[in-house]
Request: fold
Amino acid sequence: MRSGRDRSVDLNADLGEEVTDDAGLLAVVTSANVACGFHAGTPETMRTVCAGAVASGVTVGAQVSYDDRENFGRVARDVPPAVLREQVAEQVGVLSAVAASEGGGVAYLKPHGALYHRVAVDGLQASAVLDGSGDLPVLGMPGSLLLSLAGERGRGVRLEGFPDRGYTPEGGLLPRDRPGALVTDPDEVARRSGGARGAGALGVRARRLSRRGHHRRGRTPRAGGRRPARAELLVGPCPGRPSGGTVGPVRVVPVGPRACLVEVEDAAAAASLAAWARDSGVRADDIVPAATTVLFDGVDPALVRAALPDRPIAAAGRSGPLVRVPVTYSGPDLEAVAGHWGCSVEEVVAVHTSVEFVALFCGFAPGFSYLGGLPADRAVPRLESPRSRVPAGAVGLADTWCGVYPTASPGGWLLLGTTHAVLWDAAREQPALLAPGTRVRFEDAG
Reply:
């Protein structure tokens, strides 16, 4: 639905508050404010909503609140700015982690209830909310001090209006205990929503306009009845899919005020980005690549976002140290790998020893490095039923990965053989033998 040139409409709802029909709302909205646990919501409701949002293509926003579940976040509180900043950071961080685990991300910030109204007029609390939320765009009402401060910081700003709420002559929401505060007739809500596309029905003029409605906590729609609108319509560029700040193929997802995940296409891109960040002098306490992300810890996400280049990052060169790992090729899955590759066991060994692998990232266990370099046509599946015990030093394949188990543990990789190399030694200056960036050659020990 569009109104005028370059004006688009986004239908938004509050979800995850444990009283909403989340599945029903996800079927009709295009963005969702997800409760982050301080006024409502649990890790499980967040996970369910984020999974549904990813499946439905719905953008996720963090709905942050005072720490006040008892009053559903609707009572104003005099929280010290430093405390409020950490509370907001915790909420954004938790939801960001949950959303990332479901394949999504957090695209914007929306204060809830009493905090929403307080930051419209209180500079200290507004600044604390911004300080705790990285560089996320902010959703709020026209005239809000929070939005003014966000704009001064270069943050994205999205304006909203409420078709099922009454307004004061100054453009603010009528308090809920005042006559006319809630519009309960669905037809009237629909009429006001239609008019708001022209920015006249609600008395709000803005480049971007959001329309939303409210329900009362504890009251769910009657079966077969019409739901309250509880929707926002954004006139202007739609939030679209979760962005979190994109530069070419990467996306920055804040995890609190001093850390963020940069999402990339694959492990090779993650390794390249991590190497580029170290070489470029990005000042973080730690830079940790993974399969499709790079963690920047101990640095403001906004600084990471600003440091990222506006062009694709070149692949990391093979300049790391070379480690040669002797292997006794007598693993129980050699013939299975030969079957997948359509060759002999001897040829499996020849291929494996001919590849120069690169340690792209570590995970699973201390010293376990995911080694890339095997061609795509040599990918093999994991075991359908993992072994309960894989011996230390076992060398295995899974998909196009190669890895060496540093200690005995359960595992489902196809095992080619074993090595006596010590993969992890806490007494060494570099405990992991195959740290990210290390080049690895396997040699037949006979």
In short: Confidence is low (pLDDT under 50) at residues 1-7, 195-248. The chain is about 25% helix and 20% strand.
